[in-house]
Structure formats: C-alpha cells, structure tokens
Amino acid sequence: MPPSTPYDAQRGDEEHVLDLGGGRQVAFAHNGPPASRTVVLFFSGLMSVGTARDVPEPCRDLGVHWISPTLPGMGRSSARAPGESYHTALARDMTALLAHLYPKGDFDTLYVAGGSYGTVQAQMLFGAPYDAFPAGRKIAGCMLLAGFSPFKYHAGHAKSLNWQTWVSVGPPSQLVPFHLLQRLTSSFLAAKFRTLDGAKDFLNQTLFARMQPDERATFATWLNRKGLTEEKFITRLAKGAVNCCQTWDGFIEVSDVIHSDWGFNPATLDADHASKPVLVVGSEEDHVGGSTNDWLAANYKNATLKMIPGGHISSLFYMDEIWQAMIELSREATK
Predict the structure, then answer these.
(1) What is the model's pTM?
(2) Residues 6+ apart with CB under 8 A from 177
(3) How far is 67 from 97, CA to CA, in rounded Å?
(4) Which tens digits make up the pLDDT trace of 196-250?
(5) What is the C-alpha separation between 157 and 295, in angstroms, rounded?
(6) CB 276 within 8 Å of CB 259
(7) What are phi and psi of 203, to 5 degrees?
(8) Which whole-number Å values give the CA distances from 281 to 40, 115, 126, 304, in the listed order?
(9) Would you say 312 and 116 are in contact if contact means Cβ atoms under 8 Å apart?
(10) Rounded distance, CA 317 to CA 315, Å?
C-alpha cells in the first residue's frame, strides 16, 4: 500500500459552508493536516470558487493546512452587509473561519496569498490592524500573484491599466452611475457562464487560445506532471466559474472594492507589519492583470518582485518555485 498522506485532491475539492450568523455564510475548501501549526489562506480571483485540490510541494513539505475561501458575494459566500466596509467584513469573516477550524487558535504561522482580484483580500488581511484581525500577528508572509494595488493610494493607477481593465475597474467604472457598466458586463458574462460548455469556450478564448508557443509547451509539461489533459483542466476551471456565478453581487462591487479604503496604506504600515515579506509575482506577457506590480513592489517596504514567463495564469506552472521563494523570504525575515 502507498504511504498515507494528509493531502487528498478529492477532499480538497469539497466545498464546506460556515454559518456566520445574521443570515450570512462563507464557503471554503481546505486540505492538509487540520492540526497543522502552519496555515495558508489563499484567495482565488474572479470567476472561481475556493479550491484546495492541488497544494504546492513546498507547502506539503512544511505540512501546511491550506484554506481557500470563496470571495464574498460569489458562489455560496454571502456578500457583506449593506453599509459595512469591505475590509472590516472580510477581517471579521476570516477571523470566524479560522476560529471554526482552530477553536483554540493553536497555529503559529500564517501565510496570506491571492491571485488576481484575490490579491486585494490578501493585502487587506496583511495590513489589517491586529485588533481587527488578530491572526495577523502570526502572518509570516504575503504572496501576490498578478496583483492589484489599492487605487486610493496609487495615484497613477489608471495609466498602468490595459484598456479592458481600465474600463472594468478604472475611472469609467466609477463615473458611470448605478453600476451600469458592471451590470451590462455581468449580463453578458451570465450568458457565457450559464452552461459548462459556454464557460469552457469563454475561458479557452480568453486564457488559453492566446498562449504563445513557449507558454503552451510549459503548459503541456505541467499538465503531464499533474496527470491532466487540457480538456480536463479547462473543464475543472469552468465548473468553478459556473459555481461562482450563482450570484453576481461580488462581481458588481469589484471596482468599488479596489477603489475603496482597504484599512491601511502600504507605504505607511507600522514597523511590525512592514517587516514581513511580500512576494509580488508578475507574468511577462500578462494582458489581463498584474499591471500595478511595480507600484506594489515599491510601496511595501519588504517586497520582492519576481517575474516569470507567460500570461495571466502562468504562475500556476511555477507554483512550486514561487512558494519555495515565499518560504525562504519568510525565513530570512525572522533571522
């Protein structure tokens, strides 16, 4: 018999729902030893739900407990209460989730990480005051894959965005009243993500059909290593997208959240927060996100910028290397 492992792909795919009270809930997936004293909170981006199917090898070597929540207002996760700031609600919800999984708070190390829009939530927790997010005291590092900057403090953000992102989350998205742009976009996307085939076609055209030959070769090698076919992988992503689009509340507020007060300014974090490493990862041919990576690297005092080949999702193919770099940075910071 093969040796037992605390990591199981099927268990990592299972969706769990935590009742937060007040008619709200948060959906999440998790994988790894539930009593591990090292925790990863990973936030995925738009058109996805939390999944913990594939935990990177360096994290497995550490024996981490990988937790991936579904973002507020997406999938089966409730939106924040009306009138409540996003960063406050997020910190409270994640405190409740960690308390549910660790009733005694018996973990020592926390990594917060995210991809694309999920980098917003990772940063909100990283910079949150400790009275709002007590687990922040245990944060050992923050990883941002194709990240967004806080537009409130990034004065020149509009100049760094490509035209699609400029329209969707840049100035037009804040100037047109009643979320009309967001509602039009969500209506268009809802037609695409109503069926699995529609979601597969959209993801294939926006992410995979644009791959250059070198990235496609890297993608093929990665698929082979994971025992996947391209069809199976895209189908898995499409299922997550369809599940995410059960509700559009979270999608409609994306621009508002990115432009909002995140509860802190990266450039003026206190010494304890600022001492913790931030790994900013960008893809050289990313035409979807990551255009504010330079600002992030310049404004977090202990930031490192790592560039990798490929497009928007290419970090998937280098995840082991990226996580090894994150772990090494956190060790250096504590010497």
Answers:
(1) 0.96
(2) none
(3) 9
(4) 999 999 999 988 988 999 999 999 999 999 999 999 999 999 999 999 999 999 9
(5) 9
(6) no
(7) -65, -40
(8) 17, 9, 16, 8
(9) yes
(10) 5
Residue 174: CA count within 13 A, CB half-sphere: 14
Q: Which residues contact 61 (CB under 8 A, 6 or more apart)?
A: none
Phi, psi of 12 (to 5 degrees): -70, -20
Please report the pLDDT score of residue 4 as a whole number. 61
301 close to 207: Cβ distance less than 8 angstroms: no
Tokens of 319: 């995840």
Domain boundaries, the chain: 9-166+260-333
The CATH number of the structural domain formed by 9-166+260-333 is 3.40.50.1820
Q: Which residues of the chain have pLDDT under 50?
A: 1-3
CA distance 320 to 316: 9
Phi-psi region of 263 (alpha: psi -120 to 50; beta: other; left: phi over 0): left
User: What is the CB neighbour count within 10 angstroms for residue 209?
Assistant: 10
Three-state SS letters, 283-331:
ECCCCCCCCCHHHHHHHCCCEEEEEECCCCCHHHHHHHHHHHHHHHHHH
d(CA 244, CA 70): 8
Q: How far apart are alpha carbons 293 and 79 in whole angstroms?
A: 28
DSSP codes, 196-263: HHHHHHHHIIIIITT--HHHHHHHHHHHHHHT--HHHHHHHHHHHHHHHTT--HHHHTHHHHHHS--S
pLDDT (0 to 100) of residue 9: 95
Q: Per the structure block, which two tokens stand in for 147? A: 């990240």
How close are the terminal C-alpha atoms of the chain, in Å?
41
Amino acid at 127: G
Question: What integer pLDDT is reported at residue 272 of this predicted model?
Answer: 98
**Per-residue three-class SS string for 116-167:** CCHHHHHHHHHHCCCCCCHHHHHEEEEEEECCCCCCCCCCCHHHHCCHHHHH
Put residue 22 in one of left, alpha, beta given phi > 0 → left and psi -120 to 50 → alpha: left
Give dist(CA 170, CA 214) in Å, integer.
31
Q: Report the interhelical angle of 230-244 vs 213-226 (nearest 10°).
A: 90
